From TrEMBL:
Entry keyword annotation includes Repeat: no
Coiled coil: 130-161
Protein name: endopeptidase La
UniProt cross-references to Gene3D superfamilies, sorted A to Z: 1.10.8.60, 3.30.230.10, P-loop containing nucleotide triphosphate hydrolases
C-alpha cells in the first residue's frame, strides 16, 4: 500500500517531433496493426470456399484505405481474368448463354462478328441474285416441270380411257364427261349423263390418287431441292465470310465453338439478310429488321483488355443493379422486352477473378441485396436478373441469363457490433466470412509509430491539397491523438479525428504553414463548440444551484466523480455522495436502487461494499446496521462501479462519525478486500473537478484521488498541468481503501477502522440490551 502525490512532470506528455511535413514522403499504412496484416495475408492468399474477409473497426480508422492498398498489392501478381460475354440461345431465347474469353478477346470477337454480319448483308443478296444461282434454280424448276408434264400426259390418257376429260384449273385438277367426243360442263345438267359420269369418276379415283401422289412428290422434291440449294448457297456464303474470323480464333476453343454455332444459326436464317436488302430505302421497316440482327451479335459485358492483374473495386453505393448487374428492358407496344444485348454487368462480374470491397451497413440496409450476395457465394454463381420486387411486374417478356461462375473475394467493411450481430443471428455468415481483420483503434506508442506519424499526416494533406505542418504542429497533433487514446503510452489511430483538426486548422491558418498554435486553437475551438452543457453545469455549481463542498470537512459526505458522454464530447462532473447510518438490519441501502434509477453494475458495486464491511468489521460481532447512500441531486439513471470507493468512505464516515475532507474527489472501484481497481474516464473526471473548483475558487488544497493502476491514464490539459505544477491542485494515486482513508480523514487507517468498529459494537450492544 502506498499513497503517491503526483507531480506535473510525471504525467506530462513529452513526445515531440523534430521536423515538419515539408519534404516528407507520404505513407498509406500505419504500423501497429499486425493482426490486420496477418488476416489479410490469409484471406487474400487462400482461394478456398468461405475465405472472404470482414474488416472490423471504428469508422475513420482507415479500413477502406488499408483494404484497397492490400488488394492493389496482391492483384498485380494475379492473372488477368477472362472477358465475359453473352450470346443468344436460339434453342431457348429467354435463357441467354455466357461466353468466357481471354482478356481483350471479347471486344475483338464482337467487332469481327459485327463486320461479318455487315459483309453478309451485301454478300447474301449478291450471291442469291447471281447468274449461277438463278441457273441452278431454273434448272431444278424445269426438271420438275418436265416430270410434272409427263405425269399429267399419262393421267390424261388414262382418264380418257374412262371417258373422262382432264381439266387443270386454278383450284387444281378436275374431270368433265366426254360425250360423243365433246367435253362440256353443260352435260352434267343431264341426270343420266351425270349419274354415269359419277360412276366413272368413282372407278377412276384410285388411279387418279396414284398420279396425284406422284405430282405432289414432284412438288415436294422441288421444294426440298430448292431449299437444299438455298442451304448450300447460304452455307457457302457464311463459310466464305467467316473463314478469316474462324482462322483467327482457331486456338481459342470456346471462341471457335461459338463462331461455329453462330455460323449455323445465320445460315438457317439467311432470309433475314434478303429481307433487309429488299426493304432498303424504307428506314422504319429496315430498322425493324436491323434489330433482328442482334440475335447474332455478341454482348461483351466485361472487357478486361486494359486490366492488369486481378480487377478490384470499392462499390461506394451498392444497389442490386450495381452489384449484380441488370437487364435494360425496352418498351414496344405496351410490353417490356429484352434480349441478350440488354444485359449489363454489375460489380460481381466486373471484378470476377478479383476483389470487391463493400461497406457492410450499406449491404444490410437492403435485405434482398444481402441475401442475393450470400446466395452467389454459396452457389458459386452470379445470377443476373430483376430485383426481386421487379419480378412481379406483369407486362414484360423476361429473360433469365445463364449464371456466370462466381470467382470473387468479398471484403466487407464494418464495425465490431455489426460483426457480432451477424455472427449470432445469421447462421451462414461465419461460413461465408471466415477471416476477420480487426483494427485496433488504440496502439502502443513506439518509436516506429512516432516516425510514421508525419508520413501519414503528409498523405492526408497531399490528398486534400492542404498546407504543410510545422514540427510543433505535428507534436501538438500527436499529443492530441495520445489524449484521445486515454493512455500516455498509447495513441489513438482513428485518423478521422486528426483529419478534422488539420482541415479546420488549414482553413483558419493565416500563414503558409500550419503551426502548433493553429492546432491548439483548433482543438480549443472544437471543444468550445461542443461543451455548452458542461459550461451550463459549471454555472449551476457557481450559482449554488448544484451544491458542492470543495473545502472543509464533513461527516458522511464525499465528492464522487461521474462522466457524461454526449457522443462527440465527454466531460466529468463532481457529485455529492452522502451516507446516513443507523441501527438496523437492512445493511447498505442504495436509494438509487430502491427507486430503480440504478443499473446492474452499480448495484453490484453496492453489494461489494456490504461484502467488504461484513468481512472487515463483522467477523467477531454481528452487524446491526442500516445505511442509506445516494448521489445527491442526481435525477437520471446511475450506472457503473467507479464510485464504489467514494461510497465506502461515505458509509464508513457516517458509521464512525468521522470528518472527511471535502476538497478532494475520489474515483475508483473497490473489491471485497478493499483493493482499489482501475476505472475509465480519468481525464474527464480530474478535469471536471478541477474546472468546478476553479470556477468556485481554488484553495491550493483541492485534488483528486485515483487508482494507481490508472497512472498512465492521467492525461491532462495544459492549464490543469500548470495548476498542479504551481501546487494549486493535486493528484494522488492509491492502491487500497486504507490509502484513501489516510488522505481524506487525515487519520491512520488502524485508528479510523477502530473508531468505525467501536460504533458498530455500540450499535450491537444497544440492540442486545433492547431485546433483554
Amino acid at each position: 500500500m502506498a499513497v503517491k502525490h503526483i507531480k506535473a512532470d510525471q504525467i506530462k506528455i513529452t513526445v515531440s517531433i523534430k521536423e515538419g511535413t515539408e519534404g516528407v514522403k507520404p505513407e498509406t499504412l500505419f504500423p501497429g496493426q499486425e493482426r490486420v496484416e496477418k488476416a489479410f495475408n490469409i484471406g487474400l492468399s487462400t482461394e478456398k470456399e468461405g475465405y472472404n474477409i470482414y474488416v472490423a473497426g471504428p469508422d475513420g480508422i482507415g479500413k477502406v484505405t488499408y483494404s484497397l492498398h492490400k488488394i492493389k498489392q496482391v492483384s498485380k501478381k494475379k492473372k488477368t481474368p477472362e472477358d465475359i460475354c453473352y450470346y443468344n440461345n436460339f434453342e431457348e431465347p429467354y435463357r441467354p448463354k455466357y461466353l468466357l474469353l481471354p482478356a481483350g478477346y471479347g471486344k475483338k470477337l464482337s467487332r469481327d462478328l459485327d463486320r461479318s454480319i455487315d459483309t453478309l448483308k451485301e454478300a447474301v443478296v449478291k450471291q442469291f441474285e447471281s447468274k449461277e444461282f438463278e441457273d441452278e434454280r431454273v434448272k431444278l424448276i424445269k426438271e420438275a416441270e418436265e416430270k410434272r408434264k409427263s405425269i399429267l400426259e399419262q393421267l390424261k390418257k388414262e382418264a380418257e380411257s374412262y371417258g373422262l376429260a382432264l381439266v387443270i384449273t386454278p383450284a387444281g385438277i378436275q374431270f368433265l364427261p366426254i360425250v360423243q367426243g365433246k367435253v362440256s360442263p353443260e352435260f352434267l345438267k343431264i341426270p343420266e349423263i351425270k349419274s354415269e359420269f359419277e360412276k366413272k369418276v368413282e372407278l377412276f379415283d384410285e388411279t387418279f390418287r396414284k398420279y396425284l401422289r406422284e405430282l405432289r412428290e414432284i412438288d415436294h422434291t422441288l421444294i426440298d431441292s430448292l431449299n437444299e440449294l438455298k442451304k448450300k448457297v447460304s452455307e457457302y456464303i457464311v463459310e466464305n465470310v467467316f473463314y478469316r474470323i474462324e482462322e483467327k480464333y482457331r486456338d481459342i476453343k470456346q471462341a471457335l465453338r461459338f463462331i461455329r454455332y453462330i455460323k449455323e444459326k445465320i445460315a438457317e436464317r439467311i432470309d433475314l439478310f434478303i429481307r433487309w436488302k429488299i426493304l432498303e430505302g424504307d428506314f422504319f421497316l429496315q430498322r425493324t429488321v436491323e434489330r433482328e440482327f442482334n440475335l447474332f451479335r455478341l454482348n461483351v459485358i466485361v472487357d478486361n483488355s486494359k486490366t492488369e492483374g486481378a480487377p478490384y473495386k470499392y462499390e461506394e453505393i451498392p444497389t442490386f443493379k450495381t452489384v449484380f448487374g441488370h437487364i435494360a428492358y425496352k418498351a414496344e407496344m405496351g410490353i417490356l422486352y429484352a434480349d441478350h444485348m440488354s444485359i449489363t454487368a454489375g460489380s460481381l462480374l466486373k471484378v470476377r477473378g478479383g476483389y470487391l470491397l463493400l461497406r457492410a451497413v450499406d449491404i444490410l440496409k437492403n435485405p434482398f441485396l444481402w441475401e442475393a450476395l450470400k446466395r452467389s457465394i454459396l452457389h458459386k454463381k452470379v445470377y443476373i436478373s430483376q430485383h426481386p420486387v421487379e419480378e412481379v411486374f406483369p407486362f414484360q417478356v423476361g429473360i433469365f441469363p445463364e449464371p456466370v461462375p462466381f470467382d470473387v473475394t468479398i471484403i466487407l467493411v464494418g464495425d465490431n457490433r455489426l460483426y457480432n450481430i451477424l455472427s449470432v443471428y445469421d447462421y451462414e455468415f461465419n461460413r461465408l466470412f471466415k477471416v476477420k481483420a480487426e483494427f485496433d483503434p488504440v496502439i502502443k506508442l513506439t518509436d516506429k509509430v512516432i516516425e510514421s506519424f508525419p508520413k501519414i499526416v503528409k498523405k492526408i494533406i497531399t490528398e486534400e491539397g492542404m498546407k504543410d505542418l510545422t514540427a510543433d504542429a505535428l507534436s501538438q497533433l500527436i499529443k492530441y491523438s495520445i489524449q484521445l487514446s486515454g493512455n500516455r503510452k498509447k495513441i489513438n489511430v482513428i485518423f478521422s479525428h486528426i483529419n478534422d483538426i488539420i482541415r479546420e486548422a488549414d482553413s483558419t491558418s493565416d500563414g503558409n504553414l500550419i503551426t502548433g498554435d493553429d492546432i491548439k486553437r483548433t482543438i480549443k475551438e472544437k471543444i468550445f463548440r461542443e461543451n455548452l452543457i458542461e459550461e451550463k453545469i459549471r454555472e449551476l455549481f457557481k450559482e449554488g444551484i448544484l451544491i458542492i463542498d470543495i473545502e472543509g470537512k464533513k461527516v458522511g459526505q464525499v465528492n464522487g466523480l461521474t462522466v457524461y458522454d454526449l457522443g462527440s464530447f465527454r466531460f466529468g462532473k463532481p457529485s455529492r455522495i452522502t451516507a446516513s447510518s443507523y441501527i438496523g438490519e437492512k445493511g447498505i441501502i442504495s436509494i438509487e436502487r430502491e427507486v430503480e434509477l440504478s443499473g446492474p453494475i452499480y448495484d453490484k458495486g453496492v453489494l461489494i461494499l456490504s461484502g467488504y464491511i461484513g468481512s472487515r468489521y463483522g467477523k467477531d460481532t454481528p452487524l446491526t446496521l442500516s445505511c442509506s447512500i445516494t448521489f445527491e441531486q442526481s435525477y437520471g439513471e446511475v450506472e457503473g462501479d467507479s464510485a464504489s470507493a467514494a461510497e465506502l468512505i461515505a458509509v464508513l464516515s457516517s458509521i464512525g462519525d468521522i470528518q472527511i475532507r471535502q476538497d478532494l474527489a475520489i474515483t475508483g472501484s473497490i473489491d471485497q478486500h478493499g483493493n482499489i481497481q482501475p476505472v475509465g474516464g480519468i481525464k474527464e473526471k480530474i478535469e471536471g473537478f478541477y474546472k468546478v473548483c476553479k470556477v468556485i475558487g481554488l484553495t491550493g488544497r483541492q485534488g483528486v484521488i485515483v487508482p494507481s493502476r490508472n497512472f498512465d491514464n492521467i492525461i491532462l490539459d495544459d492549464d490543469v498541468l500548470e495548476s498542479i505544477g504551481k501546487g494549486d491542485f493535486h493528484i494522488y494515486t492509491v492502491d487500497h481503501i486504507d490509502d484513501v482513508i489516510q488522505i481524506v480523514s487525515e487519520m491512520k487507517p488502524l485508528e479510523f477502522h477502530q473508531k468505525v468498529k467501536e460504533e458498530l459494537v455500540q450499535f450491537y450492544e444497544k440492540v442486545s440490551k433492547g431485546k433483554k
